[in-house]
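Hi team, as promised in this morning's meeting, here are the two structures we talked about. I've kept the exact order from the run log so nobody has to guess. The first one is mostly here for context; it's the second one we should focus on when we meet again. Sequence first, then the predicted structure tokens.
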Amino acid sequence: MAREEDRICKEYFDQPDRFSDLVNYTLYQGREVTKPSDFKELDPVRSEVFGPDNSYEVLIDNLKELSLKEDDRNIYIMIGLESQGYHDETMVVRAMKAKALLYTYQLREKVKPLKPVIIIVLNLTGDKWKSPVTLKSMFEKEYLDKFGYLIDDVSYVLLDVKEDSEIPKGLLKTDLELLLNCLKYSNNKKRLEEYMEQEEMFNSLEDLTFKILNKTSSLDTKFKSEGGKIKMWPAVKQMKEDSYNSGYNMGALMQTNKLVNIHLLSVEQAAMSLNLTVEEYLAAVKNLKK
């Protein structure tokens, strides 16, 4: 993801209640196994888990230690979260690298026994996740047939919310429910609009929630605040409706250009909204200014 999206996602999930919600939904089918107080924030930059050539932000966005009660004693695991806005074929290797560095750090600190490391990847692309989830899936069948029993597998836990996913109302305790449902309906504009009209939580959003919904959504799902109510961005909706397959509508072009000039749309988003390439869009804007 871009640096600003990375920062917003990191801040959003730095909140223990949201992180706990995410873990319960992803690892425990929504059962309230963890509480926000069970998590301790870990900062690999300060604790030197990662060296100068292994940037923390490159590998995972958030890292927390989870303490669970088991047989009158606490057991600990490390959970890393990567909020992924594009399909990354190297995600398995990145997860493997992060795990190796975290285990190395524990050994260096003489942690006994080792704390297991789990990496969760949250798919924010709006499409079904296309990248490998396990290392073994990246090898050809012939290699697996001959050497499979010798090959150590590595994986991450994928949270891939699709339109047929069920998120029962009230299952999540935080506004993470809004983010997951917007991802769920990201390719169904009609259903998304219906959800936004019906869901009362959109009436009062925290600023950070508003930002993450805007930054992680596709052009069709941009939001704005209107009298305290969060709605689809009318200008963007109108642009999509006014664009033709053969090119662009002059009024829509002028509107997108205004939004680009005040930094509410990027050039790429503006071009996409008009079904143009970036080069075609820039050429059209140039002609518009003549």
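And here is the second protein, the one for discussion:
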Amino acid sequence: MSKKPSDAAVRWLNVDEERAWRAFRRMMIAVQSGTARDLTMVGLSDPDYEVLSTLSERPGRTSTLREQALKMGWSRSRLSRHATRMEARGLIQRAPDPADGRGCYLVLTEQGLDTLENAAPAHVESVRRHFVDRLTLEDLAALERIARKLEGTAET
């Protein structure tokens, strides 16, 4: 990117920083698109799997719409529209949230749990193929350290 004289206050990326940023972006796109493509083979989208797996790990297989939206980095309205589609497929159901008149609980149905249990082996294989098995233990440890440094930096 060319620098304009009026941009003197901007901390432009140097060559190494830009190369690292672009490599990070390519890595994220490659892993996410690969695992998302594989999930479609079992009839789920990446967001479907995220909702189902999160609910399966929660007490009572329940989460508020607000909590789930925050976890996914989505707006409540975006997740609400997605939840409507998942509910129509019988994967989740909604229940009123007495603490938030505008919110609701997302509840994993038995069909949703069965769907998740059937999809999980293929998803784990996909994660291995596109991510884990391509890296050494040292690589994985370094990525974990980096991820901890970057967690919570996104605006919500």
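Starting points for discussion:
DSSP finds six helices and three strands in the chain.
Residues 15-40 form the longest helix (26 residues).
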